[in-house]
Structures are given as structure tokens and as C-alpha cells.
TrEMBL record:
Its main location: cytoplasm. Binds 1 zinc ion per subunit. This is Phosphoheptose isomerase. The reaction produces a racemic mixture of D-glycero-alpha-D-manno-heptose 7-phosphate and D-glycero-beta-D-manno-heptose 7-phosphate. Keywords: Carbohydrate metabolism, Cytoplasm, Isomerase, Metal-binding, Zinc. Catalyzes the isomerization of sedoheptulose 7-phosphate in D-glycero-D-manno-heptose 7-phosphate. It comes from Thiothrix lacustris. Its EC number is 5.3.1.28. Transmembrane segments: none annotated. It is an enzyme of class 5 (isomerase). Gene3D superfamilies: Glucose-6-phosphate isomerase like protein, domain 1.
Length: 197
């Protein structure tokens, strides 16, 4: 098989997924950025989590908050719950893998904080436990998902935002999640830069 055709197919599918996402997700992207902005305004923070590629996305987001995105501005409060291997391995070992994020939220989550929960299937039980615990702490949730939304969609409450990418391929969903994250970072920067002191 001509491998160049596969490259062309990957690009075409990625572009088509992003185009469809643009048509469906503009309002929820704006709502997600508002949740992040409002949390920062009330001295809250953003916790983020996900597995595999989505763990990378959780860290990508927190680094853009803590350091910066494209504009010069103060560092913003965010913690990726995916990075501390001592904490992750001890929770998984002493309790269960399902609790690796929830246990950290019990310790760190405060009313007014926001959880960025990332799962392409919506069926990762550790991410879903994190959502339940975030709600117990009085936090709102931004859910980045895909496919049919999985069990994650049934956990969301009023005030949460679901950004479900209209695709079935994990890779296409992940590529679009990163675009959504960059949109949110940019919108938050715009909101911060135009806020009246
Ligand atoms: O990056 C990829 C596949 O592109 C994988 O590492 C993928 O993230 C892992 O299989 C995850 O465990 C999938 O979890 P989820 O997106 O269904 O929550
Ligand atoms: Zn991947």
C-alpha cells in the first residue's frame, strides 16, 4: 500500500473532525473559557486529569496556565494530577487505580475550583471518579470527551461544560482536544487582558 495515502487520510480525517467540532462546539468552548476565567477571578484553581495521551493534554494545559500561552501575563493557578509518580503509585497501590485522581482532589479541591477532565471514550473510571469527587467538593467540571460521551456524560451537572468531539477515532479526538485546550487558553488570556481592574 502507498503509505503516502495513509498520511493524506490522516490529515483529511483530522481536518474534517476539526471542521465538524467548530460547527458544534463554539458555544461550549466559550462557556468553558468563562468557567476557567471566573475560577481564576475568585482565586480558584484548575485541576486537570486524563490517561495516556490525555494525561499529556492535562499537563499541556496546566503548563500553559502556570507559565503562559501566547501572551505575556501573570502565571495562573493550575495543577495536573498526572505528574507525581510517588503519589500516583501509592494511591494505586494502597487503594486502586480508579482513585488516583479522586484522592488528590479530596486533598486539593476547593469549592470554586474547576476540574478539566479529559477522556476520549468518557469511560475511564479514574477520570469519572475524579468528576464525582470534584462535585462533592463544590467544583465545576469541564469534560473533554468524544465518541458517544461514555458514562462521563451522565455524571455532568448543571454548570458543567461538556466538549464532546464528534468522532470515533481516539487519535482524531485527541488532536481536536488539543485545539480546544488552545482555544480555551487564548480566550482566557483575552478575558484577562480586557478585564476592568
Ligand atoms: O494516546 C493514546 C492513543 O492515541 C493512548 O495513550 C490513550 O490515551 C490511552 O489508551 C487511554 O487509556 C485512553 O483513555 P480514554 O481516552 O478512553 O479515557
Ligand atoms: Zn495518542
Amino acid at each position: 500500500m502507498n503509505l503516502q495515502i495513509r498520511i493524506q487520510q490522516h490529515f483529511a480525517a483530522s481536518i474534517a473532525t476539526k471542521q465538524k467540532a467548530l460547527e458544534l462546539l463554539q458555544e461550549p468552548i466559550l462557556a468553558a473559557a468563562r468557567l476557567v476565567f471566573e475560577a481564576i477571578q475568585r482565586d480558584g484553581k484548575i485541576l486537570s486529569c486524563g490517561n495516556g495521551g490525555s494525561a499529556g493534554d492535562a499537563q499541556h494545559f496546566s503548563s500553559e496556565m502556570l507559565n503562559r500561552f501566547e501572551q505575556e501575563r501573570r502565571g495562573l493557578p493550575a495543577i495536573a494530577l498526572t505528574t507525581d509518580t510517588s503519589t500516583l503509585t501509592s494511591i494505586a497501590n494502597d487503594y486502586s487505580y480508579e482513585r488516583i485522581f479522586a484522592r488528590q482532589i479530596e486533598a486539593l479541591g476547593r469549592k470554586g475550583d474547576v476540574l478539566l477532565a479529559i477522556s476520549t471514550s468518557g469511560n475511564s473510571s479514574n477520570v469519572n471518579r475524579a468528576i464525582e469527587t470534584a462535585h462533592d467538593c463544590g467544583m465545576q467540571v469541564i469534560a473533554l470527551s468524544g465518541k458517544a460521551g461514555g458514562s462521563m456524560k451522565d455524571l455532568l451537572q448543571n454548570g458543567d461544560v461538556e466538549l464532546r468531539v464528534p468522532a470515533d477515532s481516539t487519535a482524531r479526538i485527541q488532536e481536536t482536544h488539543l485545539l480546544l485546550i488552545h482555544c480555551i487558553c487564548d480566550l482566557v488570556d483575552q478575558m484577562l487582558l480586557t478585564e476592568t481592574p
